[in-house]
Every structure is written in C-alpha cells, then in structure tokens.
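Example for tutorial group B:
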C-alpha cells in the first residue's frame, strides 16, 4: 500500500502488510466472498499464530478450515509487516495506534482481497484489542466476533505494567533514545523477564519450578530469548496498546459477540472481559480456569470449544 495515512496525520510510505490465508473462499451469485474470517494475533505473534489454538483449527473443528476462509495478517508494527525494524527507519518510524492496525487490515481485506463483508473476526490478547477495534470502527462489516482474554482499554495494573516494562528498555544506556547500532540487550532481557511474570497463574510458577534456583534460572532463560526481538518494535507496540480505548463505542457494536476470558489471567482479569460483554448489546461471556493464566487464552481455548461451536451455529 502506498502513502498510508495514520490517525496522527503522519504517513507511512510503501506500507507492507504480511498475510496468509487458510481455507477456501466461497462465493455467492454476485461473485462475493461470503465466508471470510479475520484472525488477529497477539503481542508477540504474527500471521502464523492460528497454530497456537490447539485442537481448534481444521476441518470439523470450531475454526473450521472447510467452512471458513481465514485471513491471517501480521499487524502493522509487528515484524513481517511495516515496523521500526522492518522499515529500517528505527526511531523515525511514526508512532501508530490499534486503530491504524485495523484500518490497514481493512484496506487489505477490502481493497486488495476485494472482500466486501466478513463473516467474523477472532483475536486473543492484543488480537482481542484488534477484534474490538474492528467491530467498533466497522460495525456493519462483519456478522460476529470473538474477542478473547482482552480489555476494551488499558488502564490500572495493565497500564502500569506496560509503562514500567517500556521504561526498563529505555533506561538501558545502550538504547540511546532508539538510535542503537546493537540491541540494548540488558534492557530487553529484563523486559522479557518482567513480562513473563504476568503471563501465568501463581500456581503455574510453583508447580513448574520446585526450587528457587530452578525458578531464577528459568526466568533468566526467558530473558535470553529476547535476542530475536527489536527494542523499538516492542516499545512502539507497547505504546499503541497503552493508548488503546474503545470502551465508549462498545454500545454501538452490531456484530453478534462472544467474549471469552481466563479466570486466572493476571493481565486481563474477569473484571476486564466481563465489562466488555456488559457493554455490547446482546453479548455473551464465557470463562474457564487455566493454570497457564493469560497464555491459556490460546493454548487451552479448547476448554471453550462447545460454547464456541454453539455460538457459531
């Protein structure tokens, strides 16, 4: 896409959106695709994140590849699509919003793929943000939506968490206000260690590591995994999340909506996802227990299989 204008008024030249499709498009007599479903990925994901929904994807399963034509896009700002690192602009890459992510996806769907209407939108965590942005920005464009383990805005502990984690990277002298030649490795390691503490339930940590030494080594190993990430990409994405809010627009949603949550989620607890269902007309809510906490929103979504199947009938 050329000259993509952001909500801020700034322009991304030659915007790139990485995507893949799964399933076969079905068309009506007018040649219009009628079974398209957008699946939005989480914070650290990309177009391939659909594979994390274990036992949920494939012929005869809830996310039925024989029934639906899935559009899997890597969000604006995530590596694979245009981002500070992919563009080569680093800190000069313009700041963007979740709304910008969805307007880019809308252009992909409508202008590039020539799809005039979606059957549905699905997304977990940051993908849930995107799902909520889809159904509030384009309320007549889809029939149904399933936002999972998410919130309609970032505030309270979730906001404090993101702000503190971003500062950890920025305070590393090697960050150099984003003008680094090499990644600010120490800041990135501690960022990932800090983020990891929120992903799982309290029980998970005590059950997984039996001694203090095992826990601390495991935490250190998580930090070392940050070598595959770019600091500016992380910060730009975190700040987009921190500025996300669609709460006031939820009553205008027209799509049939099923909100799903994980009871032990430390990032988006029951109060967050239940508030979404309360605000959307006719929305239903379902939650389940998972020792995996927030991570259980994808890896154990199969616990919501029957509810999802009933919803999609």
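The residue assignment follows.
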């Amino acid at each position: 896409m050329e000259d993509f204008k952001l909500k801020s008024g700034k322009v991304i030249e030659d915007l790139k959106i990485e995507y893949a499709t799964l399933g076969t498009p079905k068309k009506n007599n007018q040649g219009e695709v009628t079974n398209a479903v957008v699946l939005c990925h989480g914070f650290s994901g990309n177009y391939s994140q659909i594979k994390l929904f274990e036992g949920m994807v494939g012929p005869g399963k809830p996310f039925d590849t024989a029934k639906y034509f899935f559009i899997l896009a890597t969000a604006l700002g995530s590596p694979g699509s245009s981002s500070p690192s992919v563009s080569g602009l680093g800190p000069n890459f313009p700041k963007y919003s979740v709304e910008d992510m969805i307007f880019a996806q809308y252009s992909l769907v409508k202008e590039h793929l020539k799809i005039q209407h979606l059957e549905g939108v699905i997304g977990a965590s940051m993908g849930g943000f995107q799902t909520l942005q889809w159904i509030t920005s384009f309320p007549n464009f889809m029939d149904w939506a399933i936002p999972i383990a998410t919130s309609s805005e970032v505030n309270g502990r979730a906001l404090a968490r993101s702000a503190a984690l971003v500062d950890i990277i920025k305070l590393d002298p090697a960050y150099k206000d984003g003008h680094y030649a090499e990644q600010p490795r120490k800041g990135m390691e501690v960022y990932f260690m800090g983020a990891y503490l929120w992903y799982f339930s309290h029980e998970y940590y005590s059950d997984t590591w039996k001694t203090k030494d095992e826990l601390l080594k495991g935490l250190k190993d998580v930090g070392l995994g940050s070598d595959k990430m770019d600091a500016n990409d992380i910060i730009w994405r975190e700040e987009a999340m921190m500025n996300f809010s669609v709460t006031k627009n939820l009553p205008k949603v027209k799509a049939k909506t099923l909100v799903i949550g994980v009871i032990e989620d430390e990032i988006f607890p029951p109060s967050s996802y239940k508030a979404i269902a309360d605000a959307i007309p006719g929305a239903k809510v379902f939650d389940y227990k998972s020792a995996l906490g927030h991570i259980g929103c994808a890896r154990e979504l199969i616990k919501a299989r029957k509810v999802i199947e009933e919803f999609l009938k």
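The two ends are 36 Å apart (CA to CA). Compare this with the pattern of hydrophobic and polar residues in the output above.
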